[in-house]
Amino acid sequence: MAEELDTDFWERDFVKTEEPKEYNTLNVGPTHPATHGVFQNVMLMDGEFIVSTEQTIGYIHRAFEKIAERRPFYQVTPLTDRLNYCSSPLNNMGWHMTVEKLLGIETPKRVDYLRIIVMELARIADHLICNSVIGVDSGALTGFTYIFQDREFIYEIYEEICGARLTTNMGRIGGFERNFSAKAWDKIRHFLKTFPAKLKEFETLLVRNRIFMDRTINVGAFPADRALAYGFTGPNLRACGIDYDVRAMNPYCSYDEFEFIIPVGQNGDTYDRFMVRQEEMKQSLHIIEQAIAKLDAMEDKETYFAKDPRFVLPPKEKVYNNMEALIWHFKIVMGETDIPAGEVYHSIEAANGELGFYLVSDGGRTASRLHFRRPCFIYYQAYPEMVKGAMLSDAILTMSSMNVIAGELDA
Amino acid sequence: MSENITHRTAPAVAETPEGISGQGFFATSIEKAVGLARKNSLWPLPFATSCCGIEFMATMASHYDLARFGSERLSFSPRQSDLLMVMGTVAKKMGPVLREIYIQMAEPKWVIAVGACAASGGIFDTYSVLQGIDRVIPVDVYVPGCPPRPEQIIDGILKIQELVGNEPLRRRHSKEYEELMKQYNME
Amino acid sequence: MYQINSERNQLVVTKLTNQFTEAIESNEIMADMLCISIKKEAILQALLFLRDDNELQFNFLTTLCGMHYPEQQQLGLVYHLHSFRNNHRIRIKTTTDINDPTFPSSTALWPAANWMEREAFDFFGILFSDHPNLKRILNVEEMKDFPLRKDFPLEDQTREDKDDRMFGR
Fold first, then answer.
1. Chain C positions in Cβ-Cβ contact with residue B126 (cut-off 8 Å)
2. How many domains does chain B have?
3. Which pick of A10, B132, B153, B163 has the fewest CB atoms within 10 Å?
4. Tell me: the pLDDT tens digits for A74-87?
5. Is pLDDT of A180 > 70?
6. pTM for the complete prediction?
7. Is residue C160 in some structural domain?
8. pLDDT band, residue B3 (cuts 50/70/90)
9. Is residue A192 one of the residues assigned to a domain?
10. Per the domain annotation, does A7 fall within a domain?
11. Model confidence at A1, in pLDDT bands (50, 70, 90)?
12. Are residues A43 and A125 in the same domain?
């Protein structure tokens, strides 16, 4: 008699599902190569899958909001540098605009266009870091080394404008401290000519790379309604499909005169965030070109600050030669000017989203209360929900694609 | 003014220390040999907390390549590194973490404090910021700046290399070193 | 310089005062934003109304922060809401006595308020009822004081190495 073949041997379920699961605890951070910055995630792991995470932040809490209550307005600019330190000029300009809103200063068009050039360069610098670091976290280190060359060039442009590379403290309340030099213009034009090709080179490394796509598509996907409820803004929200951009919705600094597209993703996964940032860099280049065209078309090539002697520091040549300018300089620096009391909220589209400044002034030399609406702090709360049930390597990539900067997280 | 441009025909790897050489051998003291080997292959642990960390990334990248000085392999595990580079502000919440990392490193270990915040608290004279990491761990080289330029960071690394190259072999067992560790409550 | 949408501002004020008559304490336009003060007891319902009403649709919580008013011995909260559909931003303020620093939590309305309320607790000591996880977020957990209150000093008081002559004291 032939033996009966056990044909459904392989169909039997060998895993006994009644056994209780044991989870391990894995501590990711605060010092960890993948967390770009110091924050901690204690993850409960079911093998390779994450069951839940508990976050701890505050490892670089420097009490900016408290310091700002003790410093006059122009001394708060270096603090804002250190919020999102990858794109300091954006924070600086946002702060200057907030104070100008409080004091009622209107900046001339030329200052607005100069500010736009600087802000878009900062946005490109920040997106370059974020995208190259997504590559590094998935193992692709070449993009990082290639693209940092261009970041060095952006640093050179900053140096021509304000003297510093990273924490720029750029500009003043009411404009800039000096006109852009001819060398700065040369460098900006050179950057516009050469950067698109470099960006294309960086793209060919990652964008249609099979390994990169497999690692990032459908990783960390987040639905748009949850993103809105969690207060997402910036590229993370645009990757989910919602085209909210403060530059378009509440235009500031003459952004309504510029044409740019707001790139939008589909399902909010890591690949979408990467691609939204790539496209935003190209749009930033387009905006800089338009700004340069507008500046070339203006006859006035000399204005670089608003004409409001009560609050805007006069240029140094006048201070040393003109009595009135000296007196105004003294009054502004020593805090003898009449700052109006009031409250103001101003927000800009920073590299990570809507960076808001809520300034309460009681008429004194320093702010009575200054609150920073920091986009990283707000959207990082959603991280546990984004990685629930995902694998650890996916969770690492999700974190780096969200571009969490510790300075902005903790302030 | 005419300058004599000498082209090196052979690549200079490192300066050879003083010693006695002959056909097929070179004799020098162990200290110098070990110092030479260690200083040109320091494995740093980049403890990057804030803005100085971005300048460090720029130092590591292609423009100001740090790998030229032997620091090709960055390790994020303290057990596999010799040089702890603290870059950025260390808050009081982070102090114990930094101490743990330092204790986990194996001897011989060096510490470089990069930036004003790591050296002395920087511009943040507040209740939540540690006013200098030398309150919790012993520091060998301080690099000032906010943030220091990559050239300055490389200068700091070169000073560390000098220290490493000239370190006496028995330094870590000496009385002064034990006193230093006792000051920081580390055995 | 910045546009003020008086129609929408008026609409918000009218609808709120119709719904919550005595709880609306005051309203004014500060710089370019409508600013409404609401009594603590009605704040949660007011926020829910602002979010769910068909004409107002304030779907986005931009930020919420704590405040300390030492003269009136009060702690306060300031909410900034944003309606994407109507492109309208408003500011809502509430206050409470410093000896009873409790507010209802808006985490159920917007999950974004979770950490923002923890930050307000950490800095000012404002307690939120029904908050899922009210712990300190930025400062050390063992800290006893609330640093952003006006009476707390900025600098670390335990330092011995500062030369007072250099700091103008």
1. 154-156
2. 1
3. A10
4. 999 999 989 999 99
5. yes
6. 0.92
7. no
8. low
9. yes
10. no
11. very low
12. no
